[in-house]
Amino acid sequence: ARAEVVVRDGGSVSQALFGSLTPLATRLLEAGEQGGALAPLARRAATAASDQVQRVITSAVALIEPVMILGFGGVVGFVALALLQAIYGINASSF
Predict the structure, then answer these.
(1) Number of domains in the chain
(2) Which residues form the domain of 46?
């Protein structure tokens, strides 16, 4: 909403979105406005932002996956030990 007001008052799109976008996206929008090719450079900025988000998600998944595997392994191990303890308890009480 703030950016819309700035653009309607005659400001540039890059100035209106300054702080809301990455510095690369802001520079690309500014270059697009000055060169008269705002749409292609805005598309390039969106692609760059999308690629960056994809890299962050891939890194997060790569970090979380081993932790989840260890956690589930611990749960399975706990259940297996509980079953073995119950079986040994039954066997010990029958002798």
Answers:
(1) 1
(2) 2-94
Contacts of 41 (CB under 8 A, 6+ apart): 28, 29, 31, 32, 35
Q: What is the dihedral of CA 85, 89, 91, 94, to 10 degrees?
A: -170
Of 8, 13, 7, 9, the C-alpha closest to 25 is: 13
Cα gap 35→41, rounded to integer Å: 10
Q: How is residue 37 written in tokens?
A: 């090719």
pLDDT in tens, 76-86: 999 999 999 98
Predicted TM-score (pTM) of the model is: 0.60
pLDDT, tens only, 8-23: 888 888 888 888 888 8
- The answer to whether the beta carbons of residues 25 and 47 sit under 8 Å apart is no
